[in-house]
Amino acid sequence: MNFKDLEYLIAIEEEGHFNKAAQRCFVSQPTLSGQLKKLEEELGVLLVERSNRQVRMTEAGRTAANQARRILAEKRVLKEIAQRYQDPMVGELHVGLIPTVAPYLLPRIMPVLKKSYPNLKLWLHEYQTHTLLDKLRNAELDLLILALPVDTDEFSERDLFAEPFLLAVPTSENLSKQNQISLLELNEREMLLLEEGHCLRGQALDICFSAGATEQQGFQATSLETLRHMVAEGMGMTLMPKLAVPTRTLKSDSIRYIPFKAPPPTRRIGILYRQGSYRQATFNSIAELIQSQMKEL
Q1: Please, what is the average pLDDT of the chain?
Q2: DSSP conformation letters of 129-186
Q3: Same structural domain for residues 66 and 182?
Q4: Same structural domain for residues 154 and 281?
Q5: What is the CATH number of the domain that holds 228?
Q6: Phi/psi-derived region of residue 26, left when phi > 0, alpha when psi is between -120 and 50, beta in every other case
Q7: Sign of torsion, CA 142 148 151 153?
């Protein structure tokens, strides 16, 4: 038995298909099938029921896959311990980000991270918050960058910066002529929002409800860029986090981004990691660098 066998077993359970699992593990399907058979022979139990159309995990297979995740997590912890005593800013780091942060924050911080820590290899993963938390819990990810707070106290967190919201309105809207806007001016207006699963949706709903605004029914966007296109088409208005607002706008643009009067509505962006992680020094260094880059917010 080796760690690769455990990775193959987990991939088969999660993909439910031998070919997809093999592609994910970058091996041929016969290789993956052969290693699984050897694992079953070593354990003396059937892990997977095979048929022409589908793959079904046995109860023993599901139990073994869960244990395999714990074993691989402990392997990663062992590597973390060794790296800590070598150099905290050397090695691999799997970082998870939410979709409403990743494409806007990464261009600002990745160049300076690479320059400051050339021996730190960052693997970037983009998921919604609930998936990120599961992957952090299972040690599939080392560090999360997301909106705080999260509905759990099992991880350690650290604030990075507060990100204000702006109102994105089509230029055909009367509000677009204003240089600033108050939350009270959103009273009884309808807002375009993201679909369920995005933490930004909940934050926007809280802001809208406090201002007396409501959600526009019949449409929920899958991304901030979809929201932007809807606003550009004159279909409504939305709240846009500042990182997603273009640094330059032209008079010919079909969207105006209007700042709110002080104090503006904001969201907290921070990092999350497993309590007691041996890489806390690494996380703190990354946090301090991001904070220095985002002072302008």
Answers
A1: 91
A2: HHHHHHHHHTTS-SEEEEEE--S-SSEEEEEEEEEEEEEEEETTSGGGG-S-B-GGGG
A3: no
A4: yes
A5: 3.40.190.10
A6: left
A7: positive
pLDDT in tens, 108-160: 999 999 999 999 999 999 999 999 999 999 889 999 999 999 988 899 999 99
Contact 145, 269 (CB under 8 A): yes
From CA 159, how far away is CA 144, in angstroms rounded? 12
**Same domain as 273, residue 147:** yes
Instruction: Report how far residue 163's alpha carbon sits from residue 166's, in angstroms, rounded to the nearest whole number.
Output: 10
Residues 14 and 67 in one domain: yes
Q: Are residues 61 and 122 in the same domain?
A: no
The whole-angstrom separation of Cα 237 and Cα 234 is: 8
Cβ density class 96-135: b for 16+ within 10 Å, e for less: bbbbbbbebbbeebeeebeeebeebebeeebbbbebbbeb
The alpha carbons of the chain give a radius of gyration, in whole angstroms, of 23
Q: Does 246 lie in the same domain as 126?
A: no
| Tally of domains in the chain | 3
Domain residue limits at 177:
162-266
